[in-house]
Amino acid sequence: MGEVVVLAVSAVLLAGFYAAMAYGLGLIYGVLRIVNLAHGGIIMASAYVTWQLFDRFAIDPFLAIPIVLVVFFAIGVGIYLGLVRFLPRGPAGAVQSLLLLFGVWLVIRNVAYLLFTGNEQVIHTGYATSSVRILGGSFSATRLAVFAVATVALFTLHLLLTRTYLGKAIRAVAQNPDSCTLAGINVERIYVFTFGLGTALAGLAGTLASTLFAFNPSFGASELLKSFVIIVLGGLGSIVGIALGALVLAFAEVFAVYAVPPYLTTAVGFVLLVVVLVLRPGGLFGQRVLR
């Protein structure tokens, strides 16, 4: 029983990171209906930015979060204005957006190879080996900090979307952009802000990932795939559903050790994805629009 409790706590902590990893992808899809294949590349780039801030300027990864958010918000705005805004809207632009953003990911990855080579990098903080005992188990202080940041991000994003005029405008555009134009909402400006915010959230995920894992320029591929699994599980376009989907995926992976060898646990999420797509295409919690 004690082992089950420890595994449950581990799953909850892992779910926090998974949710933070998927927020940006879910937000961009929920408003622009674009699957941002550059999401994994942004996570990787953010990990390197965080490492550089730590290595060159001795800025702790968690203290670097505001810098990372600003930098990657600007990068997201630049990608949208320079590339994404020229794509056709709706189903006609689906294939073009996939190819374009996949190309952006390849560019980011190859630039990282040129700048940093393929060697793995690790951020060694003074508290990296610290641990906290919870319910009989010992858990890394870094994992607890990552969970806390992810939780704050979820509540902040939820409050932005539900309690502010800007958030209500974003949700309105997600539901019906044509009607928003008639109501005087600048839809293009909402798209710019949303893409920038989604990219900033991917940057946040990269910073959190850099405190947990070693990374190289190929980092981000599995994170992109798991993010996609999470937003499908939670219901496309639902921010709260993303948190629930992350919880489902984390519990499935952690408790899969009782049924499959450890090296197959990462495949559990993709099996779950196929099952959900077949039985409940709208997600386990239903398809909703940014709430």
UniProtKB/TrEMBL annotation:
<feature type="transmembrane region" description="Helical">
    <location>
        <begin position="95"/>
        <end position="116"/>
    </location>
</feature>
<keyword id="KW-0029">Amino-acid transport</keyword>
<feature type="transmembrane region" description="Helical">
    <location>
        <begin position="137"/>
        <end position="161"/>
    </location>
</feature>
<dbReference type="InterPro" id="IPR052157">
    <property type="entry name" value="BCAA_transport_permease"/>
</dbReference>
<feature type="transmembrane region" description="Helical">
    <location>
        <begin position="63"/>
        <end position="83"/>
    </location>
</feature>
<feature type="transmembrane region" description="Helical">
    <location>
        <begin position="227"/>
        <end position="252"/>
    </location>
</feature>
<dbReference type="InterPro" id="IPR001851">
    <property type="entry name" value="ABC_transp_permease"/>
</dbReference>
<feature type="transmembrane region" description="Helical">
    <location>
        <begin position="190"/>
        <end position="215"/>
    </location>
</feature>
<feature type="transmembrane region" description="Helical">
    <location>
        <begin position="258"/>
        <end position="279"/>
    </location>
</feature>
<dbReference type="Pfam" id="PF02653">
    <property type="entry name" value="BPD_transp_2"/>
</dbReference>
<protein>
    <submittedName>
        <fullName>Branched-chain amino acid ABC transporter permease</fullName>
    </submittedName>
</protein>
<comment type="similarity">
    <text>Belongs to the binding-protein-dependent transport system permease family. LivHM subfamily.</text>
</comment>
<keyword id="KW-0812">Transmembrane</keyword>
<keyword id="KW-1133">Transmembrane helix</keyword>
<keyword id="KW-0813">Transport</keyword>
<keyword id="KW-1003">Cell membrane</keyword>
<keyword id="KW-0472">Membrane</keyword>
<feature type="transmembrane region" description="Helical">
    <location>
        <begin position="34"/>
        <end position="51"/>
    </location>
</feature>
